[in-house]
């Protein structure tokens, strides 16, 4: 698959980037995408939720009424969950939500997500660029020139570039990452994925394994 390479002003450079069919043109596996996104969201959960159970509630341990003859259910403690102010029954406890996925499945998920974006023509290839100093206006000009105003955009760099990253940090709809940070969640969460030329080779080498 060939995609025209544009500059930061959105104009074609006359060159084309060849996107590998093994990464950008496979049969998408929706279930692999689902599992990888599910793992990403699960790993972000702190799992620190906790409610007090009856053993942790402060209160009297006196038997609140006699066992028989009242016509109602037995009750041995005011801290029972059936009473107001009692402990919560089967409440949340601290836990770890993370789970394991095989590397091969995660690579399949990323290839599937990239294929879906390619099918939707939501992939743009831009020649490598840099800013002399971090400046949000410079990055906004790039986003506008590429026609990505008011769209969630994901910029993928070949290597870390502090000036470009800092220039994008104040924008809620744009995110800048390196190729090693590319994940299925980030791909699916963006309306358009913008690859800098220098990132394509590493991505294809990593995901073609």
From TrEMBL:
GO terms for cellular component: ribonucleoprotein complex; ribosome. InterPro entries: Ribosomal_uL4, Ribosomal_uL4-like, Ribosomal_uL4_dom_sf. GO terms for biological process: translation. Keywords: Ribonucleoprotein, Ribosomal protein, RNA-binding, rRNA-binding. One of its GO terms (molecular function) is rRNA binding. It comes from the Bacteria. Gene3D superfamilies: 3.40.1370.10. It holds the Pfam family Ribosomal_L4. SUPFAM superfamilies: Ribosomal protein L4. Residues 44-77 are annotated as: Disordered. Forms part of the polypeptide exit tunnel. Part of the 50S ribosomal subunit. Belongs to the universal ribosomal protein uL4 family. NCBIfam families: rplD_bact (TIGR03953). This is Large ribosomal subunit protein uL4. The gene is rplD.
């Amino acid at each position: 698959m060939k995609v025209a390479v544009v500059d930061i002003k959105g104009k074609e450079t006359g060159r084309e980037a060849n996107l590998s069919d093994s990464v950008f043109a496979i049969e998408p596996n929706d279930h692999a995408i689902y599992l990888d996104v599910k793992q990403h969201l699960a790993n972000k959960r702190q799992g620190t939720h906790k409610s007090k159970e009856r053993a942790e509630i402060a209160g009297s341990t006196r038997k609140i009424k006699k066992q028989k003859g009242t016509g109602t259910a037995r009750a041995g403690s005011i801290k029972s969950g059936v009473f107001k102010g009692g402990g919560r029954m089967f409440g949340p406890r601290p836990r770890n939500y993370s789970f394991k996925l095989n590397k091969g499945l995660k690579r399949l998920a990323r290839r599937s997500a990239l294929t879906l974006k390619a099918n939707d023509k939501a992939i743009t290839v831009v020649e490598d660029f840099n800013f002399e100093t971090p400046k949000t206006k410079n990055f906004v000009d790039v986003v506008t020139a590429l026609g990505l105003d008011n769209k969630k955009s994901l910029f993928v760099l070949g290597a870390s570039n502090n000036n470009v990253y800092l220039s994008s940090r104040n924008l809620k709809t744009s995110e800048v990452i390196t190729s090693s940070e590319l994940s299925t969640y980030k791909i699916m969460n963006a309306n358009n994925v913008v690859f800098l030329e220098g990132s394509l080779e590493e991505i294809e080498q990593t995901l073609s394994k």
